[in-house]
Each structure stands twice: as C-alpha cells, then as structure tokens.
Write a structure and sequence with these properties.
The protein has a 6-stranded mixed beta sheet with strand order 2-10-9-4-5-6, with no helix packed on it. It has a domain of 116 residues: Immunoglobulins (Immunoglobulin-like, Sandwich), CATH 2.60.40.10. It is of the alpha+beta class.
Amino acid sequence: MEDKREIEGQHDLDPRRSDLLCLWEKMICRILLLISLTSCVSGTFVVKVSQTSYQAEENHNITLEWLFTTKPDSSSTSLNIYCQLFTDHNDPVLYHVHKGDEVPESQDDRFAGRVQSDKDALREGQIRLHVSRLRTNDSGLYTCDVKTDDGVSSDRCLLNVTAAVDQPEPEKPTERPQPESRDRIGLYVGLIAAGLAVCAGLFVFRLCSNPDVREHAEEHELENMDAEK
C-alpha cells in the first residue's frame, strides 16, 4: 500500500515539474532571442545624410555628404556606391564606385568636371561630393545607395539652387589725363600753330614777290584812302 502511494505521489509531482521546465525553456528562449536581436540591431548597416536639405546660389559650390557604418576589418573591394539625381525626365549619375574603384564612365555628362570626391573621407565611412559651378537644373533629390559585406542601405537629401542675382556694374572713375597725354596735346597744338604760321608766311611771300598782286593791292589801298577823304 505504501509503495502504491509513493507511485501516485510521483505521478502528482511530474506534471508540476514538466510545467516548470517548460517555463524555464520559454524564458531561456526569450533571453536568447533578445540577445540575438540586440546584436543584430547593433550591427545594422546604415547610411545617413549629414543634412536633409541644402540651399545654394547659381555658380557657387557645395558639398553633399553621406555617412555609412564601417568596420575595421571590412574590405574596400566590397564597397559599392551609386549616387544619382532624381528628376522628372531622367536620373543622371553623379558618382559611382564599384568594388572599391571609382567608375568615372558612369558619370552623366552634365556633371563632368564638376564633381570631386574625398577619397580619404571615404575610408572613414564618409561620402563627400564637392559639386562646383552649380546650375539651377542641379536642383532636385540626391540619393546614394551603398552596399558592402555588412549590408545595403541608402539615404537622400534635397538640393535647391536659386538663380544668381545680377550685380550692378560699378561706375568707372573719370580718368584724369596723364602727363604723357598732356605733352602730346601740347605737341599737337604747337604743330598746328606752326603749320598756320608757315601758311601765312607763304601767303605774304607770294604777295610780295608777285608784282601784279602787289600793284593790285596798292591800288586797292589808294582807292580806300580816296574814299575816306
């Protein structure tokens, strides 16, 4: 009888132990899941813009910047970057990196010679694109897609380029004549006066050397004297 009671008591305790074990298993699973999720979140690959919008004026320069997470042991050959401008008509590419190497052939003609990247900053997880000689049609939404062994992510920013304001031309100060100009003016006046003197001398010389002219002049002078009397 006593053995039978012990066996029945063991049967009564087994369900309780089973429930307790199940509870512990669930708690352990939840703890492991929480640890797994925490490690995943801390290792998530993220791309973020330094600022969401930019404002600039035509013909000025600007630097667009994206930041992405990096690891010390990550290989540069796993880095792929694709940055482009979204417009209503097309999506021109302004920067492209494939397996760690820049691909200038992918760059759209409208950005040729106007976009420079900071390679030193790129190694530190920064995409810095210097855009020079801005145009009004450079306005729009810029996005950079980044892919590495750690994951894939992207972010975007807005650029607004306003037309340049026409600046009034400054008035040029009145230039005073230089000493050389004054000397030249005096020279020209002297030459003209000398020319007139020569012409007058020639006229007098001809008048005196020609008898007919001289006689006619004397007669004309006598007539004037008689008229005065």
